[in-house]
Amino acid sequence: MLRFRVLALSTAFLAGPFLSTARVVQAHDAPQVVSAAWLADHLKDRNLVLLHVGEKAGYDAGHIPGAQYIALADISTPRGEGLTLELPPVERLEVVLEGLGISDDSRIVVYYGKDWVSPATRVIFTLDSLGLGGRTSLLDGGMPAWVANGQPTSAESGTPAKGSLTPRAQATTVDGAWMDANLGKPGHVVVDARNVEFYTGAKAGGRPERNGHIPGAVSIPFDSLLTDAPRFKPERELRAAFAAAGVKDGDRVVAYCHIGQQATVVYVAARVLGYPVVLYDGSFEDWSARGKPVEAAK
C-alpha cells in the first residue's frame, strides 16, 4: 500500500492537543493512504472526518456512514472571479471546512465515488495548502473498494458540529509571475499532467487554444499514474514514471494541467515519492491567456 511521506511543510501541524475520553487517531499513527479495512476499523473514531467527492446524486444514493459531501465549487474561487479553478482566500476555506466539522485535531479521509480521482486529489491538495496534509488520507480505491470489501453504506446525511480550525497556509502553489521568473532554472522540473496529445500539440488546449506545452516541461499524464480500478499504482511504478520523465532526487516538481485539477494527481504522487512539489494553480489556462510561448513535442 502507498504511504504519503509527510514533507516538512506539513509536519508543524502534527502537534495539536487531543482529548483522552474517546479513541482518537493521531496523525503519526495513521497511514496516509488507507485501506477499506483500516477505515472500517476507525470509522467511529471521535476525530475522524470523512469527505465524499463525486456526484451529489451518488452521495445521496449511498455513501460511507458519517461522510460529508464536498464539491470542488465549495473550495474554489467562484466562476467569473478569475480562472476556472483557483484556491479561494484562506478565510473562505476556513468557513467551509469548519462547516464540514474539521478542527485542528481532525483526522481526515477523502474518498471518491466511482472514478473521481482527480477531484479527490484536488481536495487533498487544498487541505494540504492549509497545513492539514499530515492529517489527511486518501481511501485507496475509493467508494468501489469500500463496497467490494463488504462494508456498509448509508443514505442518511446530517449536519456535523462546527469545527474549530486554525489554518496554517502552506506554499503549495505558484502563479504566473513565479513561472516567468523561474522557468528553466536548475532543480525545478515542470511536469505537464495533461493527456499526451495536449503535450505534443496534437490537440489544442487553453483559452485561447494553443498547441503544445510550457517550454521545457516534461510529460507525466495524470492517468498514467493510476490503474484501471482506478487507484494509484504501486510506489515502484510511480517512481519509475517520474524517473523516466527526468525527475531526479532533490528536484522540485512544478505540476500543471488544463486548469489545476488533473495535476493534483501528480502532486499527490510526488508527495508519495518524497519530492518537494507545488502546483501551478492557473495551469495552461493562465499560461495561454497571458500569451506566453509554447512548444510542441519534436
Keywords:
single chain; 298 residues; alpha/beta; Oxidized Rhodanese, domain 1; 2 domains; 5-stranded parallel beta sheet; 11 helices
Based on secondary structure, the structural category is alpha/beta
Order of helices and strands: HEHEHEHEHEHEHEHEHEHEH
* Overall CATH architecture of the largest domain: 3-Layer(aba) Sandwich
CATH class of the largest domain: Alpha Beta
Main sheet characteristics: 5 strands, parallel
Approximately how much beta-strand content do the residues carry? 5-15%
Estimated radius of gyration: 19 Å
Overall 3D form: globular
Annotation field: number of helices = 11
Summary?
Strand 4 (107-112), helix 5 (117-129) and strand 5 (136-139) form a beta-alpha-beta unit.
Describe the structure.
The chain is an alpha/beta fold. It contains 11 helices and 10 strands. The two termini are 37 Å apart.
